[in-house]
User: Fold these one by one.
Assistant:
Number 1:
Amino acid sequence: MTLGSIAITMLGLLFVTFLIGRVMPIDPVLAIVGERASPEVYARVHQELGLDRPLMVQFWFYLQDVLRGDFGTSLLTARPVSEDIARVFPATLELATLGTLIGVLLGVPLGVLAAVRRGSWIDQVARVVALVGYSMPIFWLGLMGLLIFYGILGWVGGPGRLSIFYDGMIEPVTGMILIDSALAGDWTVFRDAVNHIVLPASLLGYYSLAYISRMTRSFMLEQMSAEYVTTARVKGLSERAVIWNHAFRNIRVQLITVIALSYAGLLEGSVLTEIIFAWPGIGSYITNALLSADMSAVLGGTVVVGLAFVLLNVFSDLLYKVFDPRAK
Amino acid sequence: MNAFARLLSGAALTATLAATAPALWAETPANMLVVANRIDDITTLDPAENFEFAGGDVLRNVYGRLVNFDPLDYEAGYQPDLAESWEVSEDGRSITFTMREGVTFTSGNPVTAEDAAFSLRRAVLLNLTPSFLLTQFGFTPDNIDETIRAEGNTLIVTTDKAYATSFVLNCLTATIGSILDKKTVLEHEVDGDMGHDWLKTHSAGSAAYSLVAWKPNESVTLQANPDFYQGAPAMKRVIVRHIAESATQRLLLERGDIDVARNLNPQDVQGLDGAEGVRIQEELKGYLMYASFNQKIPELQDPKVLEALKYLVDYEGMANSFLKGQWTIQQNFLPQTYLGAVKENPFFFDLEHAKTLLSEAGVDGLELTIGVRDVQERMEIAQSMQNTFAQAGIDLNIEVGTGKQILAKYRARDLDVYLGTWGPDYPDPQTNASTFAYNPDNSAEAQNGGILAWRNSWDADGLTEMTEAAVTERDTAKRIEMYHEIQARFRETSPFVIMFQAIEQDGLRENVEGFTTGQAIADASYWKVTK
């Protein structure tokens, strides 16, 4: 992606989100003043929000603000949206990164094994794992996970990022508690944070695993039936070398796209997980904002998630170039 | 369950979990109260602006008021708080409050009559949503220097009419009556905003707690005020954590990670029955569930038909089945715990009586449309009504829509029948009387969409005058009597079928004592809580 196409993508995203915000049947003024406000209060806020101006003028002003890094003030929190996002995004980033790591570390080997031992018990297991991952509602699995591992067995921490007693004990540096507590050398808080993240991250990791293992399996099957694999075998190469040095090497580029997509999906799509685990991340932030007609927050959140998508795309493009000489 | 647990515990995931599982779960610290609640409605913590529940809970614990309710005795009504005593002038228009001596704000500044005058004036001048609670007494930006003034240790409040003292004082117990530390607030003033921006996220009060932090959609942390004039609270810290899911709240409560769960649904309340270390506490809240019948429809104007409709609702059946525990039968417009509330609930499902009344009225078959918001319990109520009405030959078509859609039609007088809730705005009977039993102009041009009687094209049958008289009656005992009369007549003649009053069912750890959510008239209070 060139800089130009990134800019156009972002501009389009901004415009569409802005437009949806304006045509939605939610009245942002009512959201601020409440149902019982007097007509004068209503009119004053309507004007303060600039809603009496033409749509394109409103968009133009909005665009100028965004370029200055100003997403406006959230109705819900009464604070600058950029400040809110700086607070909630690291929480999601931490969770989604760990989820993706679990998904990749377990999903890729599982997919490869399922392809290599096609039809064997391991393939069947991989199929069931993926099927459950696709078909089971995430909120149900989340609640069951909480019930079993937190409620009954008491192995993991409950909802939230930390036990309430540790809340506010670590100065935010990156906003990611695992990193911040490690930097501060506070291993009690670190351990508590691990205990809280392990269940939601495993849940997201499981969904990521289901997707990644299926994709890995099908990519690998395609390669395994290719002629060059047969040739390699005929040449007397070990099966291990055939699988990892030849076939797997050729699916790396495709896998990068799959992983990047899955990662981006977790960054914006883990709303239900965040709600069940009371995880104060960007998914629940945008959802709450949307339900309350807090359009500055919705727009700000969407732009940040959009930017994350674009950056992941750019990053995977760069990785292509590393792994695939043809892309250079 | 065990088999499933065993299966999962065999997985690799479990190994990771086991490696990081020390004994984490003790009870919450003895001097800390941890509450799980939905707090995503908090948008501001400025008392001149807040008009939502979770914010009201915070502010009740942070700001003292001139008069206030005792959390352990709501029946006693308003009590002296920062005002030690008050006197009403002979013409009934002025109340002189004598301030309590020796009380300080958490900043250390003394609480004075000037602070009280500043706080009330500020609310009028800022003119934000709840300001009508004060401006209904005739305070305007032009006259507040005379109508709300401090003289030495007294605050003199002069209203435009001689209102019932109980009406004025009840309104002053609302959040907008919070007394702010003028000096601290003005230190944070920006562009003449009277500290509005700063107060959205900070506190400057004199009550049991001060605000440490509000993390939107996450938590509110309060710190005890050791110098609180009623005595330092036992809970040194209160943390209210935003947990949206009922099932999650239940789990946290069962594990002892929270002390109070405030949003349990009936299933989880039932599930907690018999759980170790947990009890359910019930409190009546101010919400009423009612149906109302538009008087534009000729058949519905007949008193016999209206009476029949009141006998066609299966109150008990609903309260004992799908509404179990969270709504109780209440057939009057004042919720229980309000000044002037009555307990008469004369109506019950009586098909034969209703049929007789309908045939006396000459109504044989009637088709009506009921507007209902797409919320589970309301749809179930509408279906129950549809069923019982049909038995008497009345076809009730259910029109489902979003809250906004249905409300817009209702406010435009376009619904035959409306089913919904009503919550009082302030802790005085006038709040509901002035909307259910008051309609000074029933014409379409009046556009009084804020008044429920108007929305149903009902001229209030002479209750308008009675309501006006009650709000200016200075003898509280007499005033209560007047609301009894208004409600008796309202039950008989109004086109409103008031059915239920909400009950909040909170899950509490067994050792939590003295926690209350404020019943129908106030907000939650933490300063009497012990563990």
Number 2:
Amino acid sequence: MTLSLEIAPRVARVSGKGQRWAEARTGGLLALPAALYFLVFWLVPFVSAVYLSFTSYDLAGTPEWTGLANYRRMLADPGFWNSAKVTAVYTVASVVPSIVLGLALAVPLSKPGRYNAFLRALIMIPAAMPLVASSMTWSVIFADKGLANTLIGLAGAEPKPWLTDEGLALWALVIMTTWKHLGLFVIILTAGLQGLPPAVFEAAALDGAGPVRIFSRITLPLLRRTLLFVLVIAVVGAMQSFVPAFLLTKGGPAGATEVLPLYLWATGFTFERMGYASAIAMVLLVAMLALSLAQFRVLRGGDDA
Amino acid sequence: MKVVLTLVVAVMLLPVYAMIAVSSASDANDLGGLTFDVSQLGAHVAQLFGQGGFPLYLRNSLVLALGVAVLEVILSGAAGYALAQLRFPGSRALFAVIVGTLSLSPIVVLVPMYLVVKALGWIDTFQGMIVPFMMSAFGVFLVRQFALALPRELLLSARVDGAGELRIFARIGVPLLRPALLTLFLLQFLAQWDSLLWPLIVANDPGLWPLPVGLSQLQTEYDFSIGLVSTAALITAVPPLALMFLLQRYYVAGLTLGGLRK
């Protein structure tokens, strides 16, 4: 009766076989669907994807082991290299501005106040809109007589074929993606900023540090964890992005917007080269993991923050 | 500062307004104009709902998004609670698999996942669209994090009082986990409402197409005016936006979770 609450659970756990059996039975029961699900829909597919990437398989018959043939073929495949390049450009060009702008907006918007809360709610609207609805909206905006050309017309520029010009189409996707993600990053960064200890900022202000110094020496280092999270979801999200390229440009013109997921999908499901598509998936996975790890390394700066 | 921020937000909302304006445009050429005509918007809505395709896509999307979200809450909720609060054989292995899966993207397992669904005979079925996404590593992980923080004294006293483990889960665990479960419901509903790639692969039958697939087809049909397509996009945007505003607290909590928690 006088057991402290700290050790009581442990005592209760070891108190009897009946209790342990009841726990195991209920735990097993509650977790069984999850065990089956992750086995059938993730573990088996993942192992199969690794295996298939070393085979040739077109859905008819059985997969035929071809060793490294898919990977060798990838090295010599201009379609793959084009997609890899498009994905790299798309990722860097959409992630950098959305994080920089996101941080620039989050710092003032994180200050308390009704009006700021109102603006934060509004800025979320693009992020909360379905990606499909956003993509269709932007396909109308980028149309010949759409809003984009009306606006640059007001500035005195000639209308541009945004989605059908090889040099412009990818940038149209970048603009749309930045617009779509900005609000999300603002909200995450705002929450991170609001979670920082105010005492540190008060002390710095008392010591006479200016806003720039406070931002670079205090805000940024303290916000590292949140920045890392935003960076990882932004990069991994951009590398997996399929819908905007599919809906706005179908990968065209001339492959200018053929991002890797689109190339993978076409390889597997239009041309039914399942083995080759799996090899592309493996390369994409390794690239995503490597980039995530590199970001952890860089932003952690060696310590265990 | 206030003016600059307001201006930035206004620019960000311009495309949303453009969508509404174009939905109400009668002339397909009038895309840059920002005038608004309620009666034309009404006509577009009536035309969309009068057609075979659109109401069907809407229904399919509701079935898909609600099906996945409800199953996710039940199954990930149960598994997350079990992994946090109960000891059972294989729990470590299961947790290891789930953590490993966190870094896997559907695009990586797209081909073999299709082969699994095909082997199950689920091509062109709702279960083929729903079951492969009815749980998520993120969901189990999120619930587990919440469940780890449940007050142990409360669960213990229920045990001392002789409540069965299942009863403790249902009567104490579930109510206390409600914020996590609501967050999960919302995030999964939104994710599935947007799902294009997977239905594109497993649903060849237009009768099963959810909105994203249906709309991507509408866009290319020649008899569809841009105003009508914009109206369809607008209607598609309403349920997620309404849900977000209703459950904003949870939405933001879910989005910011990964950045704030250890």
Number 3:
Amino acid sequence: MAQAQLPLVDTPLSLPEHPKVWKWYDYFTFNVDHKVIGIQYLVTAFIFYLIGGLMAVAMRTELATANSDFLDPNLYNAFLTNHGTIMIFLWVVPAAIGGFGNYLVPLMIGARDMAFPRLNALAFWLNPPAGALLLASFLFGGAQAGWTSYPPLSTITATTAQSMWILAIVLVGTSSIMGSVNFIVTIWKMKVPSMRWNQLPLFCWAMLATSLLALVSTPVLAAGLILLLFDINFGTSFYKPDAGGNVVIYQHLFWFYSHPAVYLMILPIFGIMSEVIPVHARKPIFGYQAIAYSSLAICCVGLFVWVHHMFTSGTPPWMRMFFTISTLIVAVPTGVKIFSWVATLWGGKIRLNSAMLFAIGLLSMFVLGGLSGVTLGTAPVDIHVHDTYYVVAHFHYVLFGGSVFGLYAGIYHWFPKMTGRLLDERLGILHFVLTFIGTNLTFLPMHELGLKGMPRRVAMYDPQFEPINLICTIGAFVLAFSIIPFLINIIWSWNKGKIAGDNPWGGLSLEWTTSSPPLIENWEVLPVVTKGPYDYGIEQRKESTDEDEDEEE
Amino acid sequence: MQGTVDSQGTAITVENVHEHPDFRVLGLLVFLISESLMFGGLFAAYLLLRGMHEQWPPEGTEVELLVPTINTIILISSSFVIHYGDVAIKKNDVRGMRKWYWITAAMGAVFLGGQIYEYLTLGYGLRTNVFANCFYVMTGFHGLHVFVGILLILGVIWRSRRPGHYNAHKHTGVAMAEIYWHFVDVIWIILFTLLYILTRF
């Protein structure tokens, strides 16, 4: 069990011998500082994003024409499986929760570190081996059964690779549970005393909801995967119908985690949005409480919707009814957030920089993805477009247009805090334009493909779908090239970018009160909260509270 | 004065700046919520499989009750025993704590021994049928948790050799081992009910 102390340095106050800027190799060591761990998560996740992205480009190349031979069918299946797995478990979840969560939560609540720093580092270090396991599984043919790994397919194809896949997921799951424990205790117990719950930045509310969700749903997936592991390797028959098992049980256990995983990927992004939008619109956020509580509402309702992934698995009608309704209910708190952000933008002095562009891009894409989600959440439509490209279009709109845009917005927003330097705006805008065009070009036509009936997960298809597929493939290449200005921007700006100063955006949340990059223990003297994190243009609160007296000392 | 969460800059000194209150017990409790959901997943799978079958357990997989019942009594009593250890350390009685923790560890070992004996004498194995699958995976998984619990208890005993490592005011490790042990017990009660008692009706 981790010790609740920081074995870091002896003289933390004057800090003369601590480097203000970390050397690059500092990020490759076992370090317990939450900021280092956050950046470790972000960088590792981004590398996996590139790997998963290359797999996607390879698949799209294969799909450019109806009968191409670019990829061997087994390799196509392996890319299909690992693209999904890597993007979810090793890119969006670790980057959003592990990366931004670890970096920002202590800074935003005025803590010097997470509650369990060593546990935190351990949680990060479970990720690289998990990724290595996934990539090494290609030596054994690669897991072939898709990212859902439904039995019986997963119990009969590439069993060694499938076992490696399971172990990798259990590793990242363990990491996720450790992280959740850490976040819950940190947010709950380590706010500066002057910060009230209704002054907690919305990102922290989102992280709290995310952590609760991960805490209760991840272990259920672990249980399901352990049973699958036994089926594959030890001759049990939990999921083998001919021996008394039942495949649908796997689906229940799998989706009990993997539907909430959607919210694990999007709730932190909602948190990032709630930080980026008011800062760059220079306006108090509209409906602070509504946004905070809607995160918790999504967290609760999100646990009761998993069966909408199983409408075609022989689900009885009453279940379809219940889960259709609960699915549609999730759209309500999500809508509340969207409207709050739009209302925040309304009449704001909007600064149209890269972070804000990505945030607005997210808004537009997520609304589209959300609408196709509502249609998919209703059983009748879902049964019609089941396993077609309509589903692929939907989840890429919410995952790429939602999560990835949000991660980019977060990177552009907090890069100055993390490195002390500004990113180049021209490259940023080029990056945004390419990403936005690429995303829509790739995924918008997929709706059409799906409605026309092209099945997903196939390498060869009916030639009638060829023109639309070609458009998607061109879009995928635009997306792939959109990374280049971003990478150049990150690497160049990290070394030579314009010095940012402590608070380049004029943000009010606590992370902007420390230096950029922050000191080892975040502050020399811990800040005192005198106004809310979004009180732009609002005069300081009346000096009647105890906290303000503290400040006067 | 807690350095980490102190808003008064003057109060932060070199000694306390790295420390914050010990949240390990809280962290363990939050973690155990997660653990219980993992068992919850297994229980749910078991109940669904049970609901699918007319005859449960299938013929040829009769559950033996005598050894498991004795085992259950031992395990549940050990929760009381370990609590005496906690009471002892709160009275600054390290020797008493060590004694009770040794007894708990021994009882845990007896439980595991009983489980192994049961496995060897049952007459069916992991692969026999889907009930046997569930039986071995679930009890085995719980057994693993008992084993971890014993290791935690032995760890506490090992650390308590150092004078003053645990005392009336400083006994987080002791408390954590106890909480974990209680958790393992509670899970066993559910497991015993599902796998042994309910198969008789």
